[in-house]
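Run log, item B.
One chain of 202 residues. Sequence copied directly from the ordering sheet:
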Amino acid sequence: MSRGRLFVISAPSGAGKTTLLKGMMRRVSGIVFSISHTTRKPRKGEIDGVDYHFITKGIFQQMIAEKNFLEYAQVHDNFYGTSLNAVELQLEGGIDVVLDIDVQGADILRNTDTVEAAYIFVSPPDLDVLERRLRGRGTESEELISLRLKNAREEMRAVSRYDYMIINDLIDESTDLLVSIILAERARAHRLPSGAAIRIER
């Protein structure tokens, strides 16, 4: 059985990454979304074990001490981390895994030799569009919107460290591009579009 491929996807908050990922997951088989652990509180509609594993800071610190994370980072006063064992089990089973992590977490992962990955950055068309999207949520204070815009400027400077960049303007086109990247990475690893290994009889 061929080993799965890890896809690391980063984007500023409000870039539309979640919508993009959901669209891709409906169209591509043999790929799963890694559920991160976080210490932040659930947002309206989020489900523990589906969107995130919501845990306390004490439990998170214990998991760090026990080296249970592939990567972890602090973002906006909360911690986010990816379970090493969960990702490895899926990759060894021939399943591709998507990690939705920020620039800081991607840098940590990129600088380790734990696992190889394809790195994809999702960007809004510009910061004005991003600001309109953040305000359109109607869920965040002016202070938090300003913080997210400031962080977005910093995050977008990291795009050169990624293998691929998607400008998320038209969601259907952006989803097509993300699907194409995943299928191209499978072909590069001599795998079928389904993710199965290509068997060549000799």
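Observations after the first pass:
- The first strand starts at residue 6 and ends at 10.
- The domain at 6-35+94-188 is CATH 3.40.50.300 (Rossmann fold).
Flagged for discussion on Thursday.
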